[in-house]
Design a protein that fits this description.
heterodimer, A: alpha+beta, Beta-Lactamase, Helix Hairpins, 5-stranded antiparallel sheet, 18 strands, rod-shaped, B: Rossmann fold, Arc Repressor Mutant, subunit A, 9 helices
Chain lengths: 516, 208
């Protein structure tokens, strides 16, 4: 501090400087301590008194190292001696962090800077001591929170990164991101996209490249799942989310992203899907079991007709009193009945076979009509009449015919069961297709059965929920997942005038074959 | 009962909901010279059939609406004596057993050999014919019984129970001569050739 005053008497100036020096000392936030070449304290300011809990008068003449605990106390004596003997400024003027000791013996983190007072010999020193407890605590908290974040990222198997576009700030990879992407922590920095580019699975690359370009072109965010070939040789599924921050002019400031290794989750999902396929197959088989008696009957009828026609023909021919017309008609019937039996068996086989899902363009009405032939026997044996109301537009759907038929059969089966206790003339099922307001094809299976209790309706689609003795409780839940997989929905309501109605939709396809 | 039904030509009534099976059966039975009538449902048959028509019923056990078993029950309620041959599918054995317990003459599984069916039909027709003959005779006996006066009926009952004229005269407080006259009238009206014949006729209609 240089204070320039003109024409001031020497003594007055000295007094004024003394007062100003005292004011500066009193106002200082840091503790200030003056000590001589032997370390004897000559001055301790107000901040120092507060910081250490001493009165200035108590410490004048005491060694400055009383303000430090071991080992800093001895070290400090050594430093001071060293400085005076060799003149090497080991601590002089350099801030260092150490523990300081209060009068009551408690310790705190402090930053210490010591300077030699210019022009003194033997030298005198001034020490500045700053309480850094708050900063240390904040740093400690930050360190702990970073450690926790790293642990959390390890547990989640998720890493994050920040890319800066200001040309100054260094990009950031979280420690666990190195692990997720198969690098060692501390390896030279690589741009996350440059690093990922050669690892992305070829089947996902086009999609990934598109997301990268979208971001470069100013997209605010991306959210994408893809596979990478991890450097350890394994194939990993990752879920990558990135967001960009723009400045007021719309320029990209930075991009923050997370890369989440979801391989385990995906595997679990794959397993769940396989399980569901198996359950669906099981569901088909058990539906089949329920209908087996009816189907056997369905095949037996044409066989009986065939055998009887053929035997009648033999007798007619043997009797030599026959008309050619009778024989011709019988033969025609034999062939028609053989085809009828074959058709039943063909339907049965496609229905039971556990097979790949196959979507094909098919007329919605035909789905209903085909199911009707399978369901008719079962319905007849339960005294149920089924009527068909097909959409005049003959809409087409892109669907796995067997799966959709399974859904319809299952709904019919439920309707038949629901009508066991109503008088036979009332036992009617209406199957209907129509095009709804959105242009989708709506299928309906409506019955006049006991209807749906609201409590039951709420649980109806839950797996393993059943109201039937011996039921698996899987029919409706499988049906719903089949319909969802086709992009449609399945729901139910009360049939006005009694009973229940089940509906599902399938997205309609225009005649040209593209979705509407 | 009307007319002399026992002499009418027997008819095979076929009831099956499956048109092809029905039609094939009709052709088969016609080929062996039988008269056949077919019906698509139990209800249709019930409406068309009258009790006095001899023959037999070939009945599908599983049908929509009224099942074969229900039709059998309805016919039993009407004291029908038409023999029933059930045709059953696989797995219908418990139903067939039930049908047999309810009086069906036979059952045959689909698909069947023509000769098996024809044999069963022939047996059923024979049974129907015998039943109807017996039924006809019983009806005649009942008609004759109805021609007896109350007094003659009293005498008949005591005669059938093996009582001598003298005992009957004592029981009814009649002269022995009068009992003899009544007894001769009874024998004449019942067209009995002997006392044994008279007793058998009364037992036949269960009025002893």
């Amino acid at each position: 501090m240089t204070l320039l005053r003109v024409a001031e008497p020497q003594e007055e100036r000295a007094h004024r400087l003394e007062r100003e020096f005292q004011a500066v000392l009193d106002a200082a936030v840091d503790a200030v301590v003056l000590f001589d070449h032997e370390g004897r304290i000559e001055l301790l300011n107000h901040a120092g008194e507060r910081m250490f809990g001493y009165n200035e008068q108590e410490v004048i003449g005491l060694k400055v190292h009383i303000l430090l605990p071991e080992p800093y106390r001895s070290q400090h004596e050594d430093y001071l001696r060293h400085y005076i003997e060799i003149g090497e400024p080991r601590i002089i003027g350099i801030g260092r962090e150490l523990l300081a000791k209060r009068r009551d013996g408690s310790q705190f983190y402090a930053e210490l800077a010591v300077g030699r007072v210019q022009g003194t010999d033997p030298p005198r020193f001034v020490g500045f001591i700053r309480d850094v407890t708050i900063r240390r605590n904040a740093e400690e908290a930050l360190r702990r929170s970073e450690a926790q974040l790293t642990i959390a990222q390890e547990i989640a198997n998720l890493g994050n990164y920040v890319v800066h576009y200001d040309g100054q700030t260094e990009d950031y990879w979280s420690p666990h991101l190195y692990r997720v992407l198969g690098r060692r922590f501390g390896e030279p920095y690589v741009g996350v996209y440059d690093y990922l580019a050669p690892l992305v699975h070829s089947a996902d690359r086009a999609r990934w490249q598109q997301a990268r370009e979208d971001l470069a072109a100013g997209a605010r965010s991306i959210d994408i799942e893809y596979r990478i070939l991890h450097p350890d040789g394994s194939l990993r599924y990752v879920h990558h989310i990135a967001q960009t921050t723009l400045n007021a002019e719309g320029r990209v400031l930075r991009q923050v992203g997370t890369i989440h290794d979801i391989t385990d989750r995906r595997r679990a999902e794959d397993e769940a899907r396989q399980m569901q396929d198996r359950i669906a197959h099981f569901g088909r088989i058990s539906t089949m079991g329920e209908m087996a008696a009816g189907i056997a009957h369905e095949v037996n009828q044409p066989l009986t007709a065939i055998a009887t026609y053929a035997q009648a023909c033999q007798r007619l021919i043997a009797s030599e009193e026959y008309s050619h017309e009778d024989i011709a008609e019988a033969l025609e019937q034999i062939s028609a009945q053989a085809l009828r039996a074959g058709e039943v068996i063909r339907r049965l086989r496609t229905f039971v076979k556990n097979r790949e899902v196959k979507r094909e363009l098919i007329e919605a009405n035909r789905l209903l009509e085909d199911v009707l032939t399978l369901a008719q026997t079962d319905a007849r044996h339960h005294g149920v009449h089924i009527s068909l109301e097909t959409a005049a537009e003959a809409p087409q759907v892109q669907a796995d015919a067997v799966q959709i038929q399974q859904v319809i059969l299952n709904l019919i089966r439920n309707s038949i069961d629901a009508m066991q206790d109503v008088p036979e003339p009332q036992r009617e099922i209406v199957l209907r297709t129509q095009v709804d307001a959105e242009g989708d094809v709506e299928f309906m299976v409506a019955d006049r059965g006991v209807g749906l209790d609201p409590a039951v309706a709420a649980e109806l689609f839950n797996p393993f929920f059943t109201t039937k003795p011996g039921g698996t409780g899987l029919g409706l839940s499988i049906s719903r997942s089949i319909i969802r997989a086709h992009g449609g929905k399945l729901w139910c309501d009360a049939n006005p005038g009694g009973g229940a109605r089940f509906f599902f939709t399938l997205p309609a396809i225009t005649a040209s074959g593209s979705p509407q | 009962m009307r007319g002399n039904s026992n002499n009418a030509r027997p008819t095979i009534f076929v009831v099956d909901d499956d048109a092809a099976v029905r039609d094939a059966l009709k052709l088969l039975l016609r080929s062996v010279g039988q008269a056949v009538e077919t019906f698509g449902s139990a209800q249709e048959f019930l409406e068309a059939y009258s009790e006095d028509r001899p023959g037999c019923l070939v009945l599908d056990i599983r049908m929509p609406g009224m099942s074969g078993l229900e039709l059998q029950q309805k016919l039993n309620e009407k004291h029908s004596i038409l023999p029933i041959i059930f045709i059953t599918g696989h797995g219908d054995v418990p139903m067939a057993v039930e049908a047999m317990q309810a009086g069906a003459v036979d059952f045959i599984q689909k698909p069947f050999r023509d000769q098996d069916l024809i044999d069963r039909i022939n047996q059923a027709l024979e049974k129907d014919s015998a039943n109807r003959a017996a039924l006809g005779e019983r009806n005649d006996i009942r008609k004759r019984l109805e021609t007896l006066t109350p007094r003659e009926r009293e005498v008949l009952d005591l005669v059938v129970h093996g009582k001598a004229n003298k005992v009957i005269a004592g029981d009814l407080k009649l002269s022995q001569r009068t009992v003899e006259i009544h007894r001769a009238r009874v024998m004449e009206k019942m067209q009995a050739s002997s006392l044994a014949h008279l007793v058998r006729m009364v037992l036949e209609v269960g009025q002893a």
